[in-house]
Specification:
Elements: E1 2-9, H1 17-26, E2 31-35, H2 46-50, E3 56-60, E4 68-72, E5 76-80, E6 92-97, E7 102-107, H3 121-139, E8 145-150, H4 163-166, H5 174-187, E9 189-191, H6 192-196, E10 205-206, H7 213-216, E11 219-220, E12 223-228, E13 235-240, E14 256-261
Parallel strand pairs: 1-2, 7-8
Antiparallel strand pairs: 1-14, 2-4, 3-4, 5-6, 6-7, 8-12, 9-12, 10-11, 13-14
Length: 262
Amino acid sequence: MTFTLATWNINSVRLRQDLVARLMTDEAPDVLCLQECKSPVDKIPAEVFANLGYTHMVARGQKGYNGVAILSKTPIVEVAAYDFANLGHARHIAGRLDNGVTIHNFYVPAGGDIPDRDKNEKFGQKLDYLTEMRDHFAANTPQKSILVGDLNIAPRPDDVWDHKKMLKIVSHTPIEVDHLTAVQDAGQWVDVTRQDIPQGLLYSWWSYRAKDWDAADKGRRLDHIWATADIAPAAHSSRVLRAARGWDQPSDHAPVFATFDL
């Protein structure tokens, strides 16, 4: 079975349902993972997406904030929804496809603006969330699994527009990168995107604050696709759909894709 998966922080699935529909029509991934849906589950426009072939969904919702969903053309069964760090936020959903692959969809806390947990509670929550992710995967070694989502960390120097300038900016600080690396190591996760695109600047997010985001190109790779070591060799064709950042009323994130031959 060959299937293509996409992950996208949509920044309100109801506000941008037309963009989701456009992606489904133009790109037609078999599985689409959304973050920051900002909607209760019963308000997600599932019927619109079902009419485009995405007849299966597992999700966790929250009014106005957070929210994650996995939309699939083929059956998917919910297997978990973790509330790491006990935040009471809808930040994780996991589903299993008929081929036995488990997909974890995460929206890791952004962490606020100050990279100091003593001065910024949100930064501490982010670190705690990542620590609990690490502990979970250390205690429950994942197999035949894919982890995707807005992890809100750009780990590599070439995942940001200027490594030195970004070292003290939340999303690229050494402590965040260390925490994310610990999560990756605990589950023996392989960064599929960088497996396919090992070198060069690569971004999936561009700030709304830039008057011309495309020309400025001050991006960060915050959105990720990982796979367990047993299926990572089956992954290929990774890409970021940068053009989606320029669609009308866009999310500030672009979709990230990978294909798996399993």
